[in-house]
Design a protein that fits this description.
α3 packs across α4. The chain has two domains: 5-197, 2-enoyl-CoA Hydratase, Chain A, domain 1 (Alpha-Beta Complex), CATH 3.90.226; 201-248, Lyase 2-enoyl-coa Hydratase, Chain  A, domain 2 (Orthogonal Bundle), CATH 1.10.12. The protein is 47% helix and 16% strand. It is of the alpha/beta class. Belongs to the enoyl-CoA hydratase/isomerase family. This is enoyl-CoA hydratase.
Length: 257
């Protein structure tokens, strides 16, 4: 069986969609991505994750349209339920995630990138959800995650019109975090991942969890969770190390305890 997803282990782990040139999302790629995410989630040494596509032409150009005929009348059980599970695995990883968008992120590829905490694109990148042009709708989180990131009006524009936008527009509306020169997306994502990995790992996990809760939780409930999170963080050795390093004017050496 061909490996369509590769994991490059380390503190800054990389998950590579290896189905060039367009790295389309087939059912087999989704199954392999599920296994890869299980591996990453179980590794206590992981501090950050970079997701990118092989070949340099596209991060991911969306679903494998060649599979559409076989999905007629049974898309949920044969495709979308698994994708929903796997995309949620990525979205709920406790460590920060960065999508390196070299080339285009379209349809299901953009939906996958939306599951990451950060998205770095290049000046040549196009991002869009053209599903309606094919007579279908986004089904792996696009109609739900995109409005939460860029707002309802802009999400309607992207999804209902189905026209891709360039990286400059994506940056202006908050869809991507940074825009870099072509060929530099993966390196920029690795640099960001290294910065994220240098932070206190317990504090990072708590902060990410609290931020994700903020979109679904009433303010008073969120503040209560924040207080609990602070109690957790202030009980760690890393908190003492961070304060000591600051006072000594040296880099902190966090251990995750």
């Amino acid at each position: 069986m061909t490996d369509l997803v590769r994991v490059v282990p380390g503190p800054c782990t990389e998950i590579v969609l290896d189905n060039p040139p367009l790295n389309v999302v087939s059912r087999e790629l989704t199954r392999q991505l599920r296994a890869a995410l299980h591996t990453v989630a179980r590794d206590p040494e992981v501090r950050a994750v970079v997701v990118h596509g092989a070949g340099g032409k596209a991060f991911c150009a969306g679903s494998d349209i060649a599979e559409f005929h076989d999905l007629h009348g049974r898309v949920a059980e044969d495709k979308l339920l698994l994708e929903r599970l796997v995309y949620r695995q990525l979205a709920t990883l406790p460590v920060p995630t960065v999508a390196a968008i070299e080339g285009h992120a379209l349809g299901g590829g953009l939906e996958l990138a939306l599951c990451c905490d950060f998205r770095i694109a290049t000046r040549r990148s196009k991002l869009g959800m053209p599903e309606l042009k094919l007579g279908v709708t986004p089904g792996s989180g696009g109609t739900q995650r995109l409005p939460r990131i860029i707002g309802l009006a802009r999400a309607k524009e992207m999804i209902l019109l189905g026209e891709p936008i360039d990286a400059a527009h994506a940056l202006a509306i908050g869809l991507v975090t940074r825009v870099v020169d072509p060929g530099q997306a993966v390196d920029a994502a690795r640099e960001m991942a290294e910065t994220l990995a240098s932070r206190g790992p317990v504090a990072m996990r708590v902060a990410k969890h609290l931020l994700d809760l903020s979109t679904e939780t009433a303010l008073e409930d969120g503040l209560a969770h924040e207080l609990d999170g602070s109690e957790t963080v202030f009980a760690t050795d890393d908190m003492l190390e961070g304060a000591a390093a600051f006072l000594a004017k040296r880099p902190a050496r966090f251990t995750g305890r």
